[in-house]
Amino acid sequence: MPKADSSVCLSLLPPSDALAQPLPSWQLYGTLGCHLCETAEQILQQAQAVIAITWQKIDIAELPDAQMLTLADKIPVLVTPARTLYYPFSIMDILALA
C-alpha cells in the first residue's frame, strides 16, 4: 500500500501569489526520461476514462532546488487533496481517492 504523507502535500503547494490560475486538484510530480513517471501518467489517463479527475504533470527539474531534492528519489509522486501517493500505485489506489 502506498505511503501517505500530508506534510509533503503542503510543502509542494506553490506560493499563494502563483495561484492566479486555479490548479488542477491533483499534481503528478516526475521528470523527463523517468519511465516510472510515464507509467504513472498512463495509469492516471486510464483512471480519467472512468472518473472525472483533473491533474497536472509537474517536472521536478523546474522546481526550486529544495523541493527538487526532496522529491528526486521519490518520483513519481501523486499529490491529491486527500493523500500523497508514492509509486508504485495502481488504478485501484487512484479510484479509491476519487
Q: Would you give an account of this structure?
A:
This protein has four helices and four strands; from the N terminus they run H-E-H-E-H-E-E-H. Helix 2 (35-48) links the parallel strand 1 (26-30) and strand 2 (55-59). It has helices spanning 6-11, 35-48, 65-71, 91-97; strands spanning 26-30, 55-59, 77-79, 84-86. It is of the alpha+beta class and 98 residues long. The chain has a single domain (25-97), classed as Glutaredoxin, CATH 3.40.30. The model is unreliable at 15-19 (pLDDT under 50).
Query: CATH-wise, what's the superfamily?
Result: Glutaredoxin
What is the oligomeric state here? single chain
Helix and strand sequence: HEHEHEEH
* The first-level CATH class name: Alpha Beta
Under the CATH scheme, the architecture is 3-Layer(aba) Sandwich
Number of helices: 4
Strand order of the largest sheet: 2-1-3-4
Largest sheet: 4 strands, mixed
